[in-house]
Sequence to fold (113 residues):
Amino acid sequence: MTDARFPGTARLRNAPEFRQVLSNGRRRHDDFFTVVVLANELQRPRLGITVSRRAARLAVQRNRIKRLIRESYRQQIETLPAVDIVVMAKSQARDADNRTLIQSLESHWHRLR
Fold:
């Protein structure tokens, strides 16, 4: 069973870390998310999330999407390689149901493995 928390060591925490991944990482996308991945030397994966107002106008929409991304990542963290991941939501994610978004994220995690 995995830990229910999402610790700081599992996150990208500042702008230079995000910039490093966004400028040097490999991009994959589908209808709902763009996922940028860059190998790290930390022996564990880390996650960064961006959900812009352009993608989801209301804060409640942005928060729902971020919550789903975090939960999906938390469930997969043990199986992911040592990479930094930035997940960027697209505007189609705003109107998609939770099941669809989770399936999309799981396909991204599967490709990472």
About this structure: The longest strand covers residues 33-39. The mean pLDDT is 93.
